[in-house]
TrEMBL record:
Residues 140-162 are annotated as: Disordered. This is TIFA inhibitor. The lineage of its organism: Eukaryota, Metazoa, Chordata, Craniata, Vertebrata. InterPro entries: FHA_dom, SMAD_FHA_dom_sf, TIFA. The gene is TIFAB. Residues 37-107 form the FHA domain. One of its GO terms (biological process) is lipopolysaccharide-mediated signaling pathway.
Amino acid sequence: MERALTVLHVSLHHPTRDLDAFAKVPAQLQHDTSPLLVGRGPDAHLRLLLPHLSRRHLSLEPYREEGSALLTFCLKALSRKGCVWVNGLTLRFLEQVPLSVVNRVAFSGIQMVVRVEGGTSLEAFACCFHLSPSPLIHRPQAEETDEWESTSQEQPPPRPRL
């Protein structure tokens, strides 16, 4: 009886639409439970040929939580120069964050959405890659306000009398 693999559905977008950058991206990849490397180096499993990308920029790392029969994943930043944005958090070198079912990731101009579809196999997982012609993530810029200044000048409410 064959055990179902956990599948990572990975959508990728880069604003330059440089198809050469994605020339080494396979449509599908089956991987053991070692970390899946993303970068421009020859040892990267997901190889993206962009000059500002580190040879080993990040990794998707499968693990099994104690008492669980399912693979879960964390994303680890491996670049000493760049950072990785994951679901609103900024990761620096060797910082990691557990992945949820749907994850929004940005690094070196690349937008990536990783959707985790659980399976029962603990020996391997699969990745399906999709190149998106349109942006995947909308991150509005923080707006500057003087809200703090106006609230700090207000008088505190009167204390109730006992």
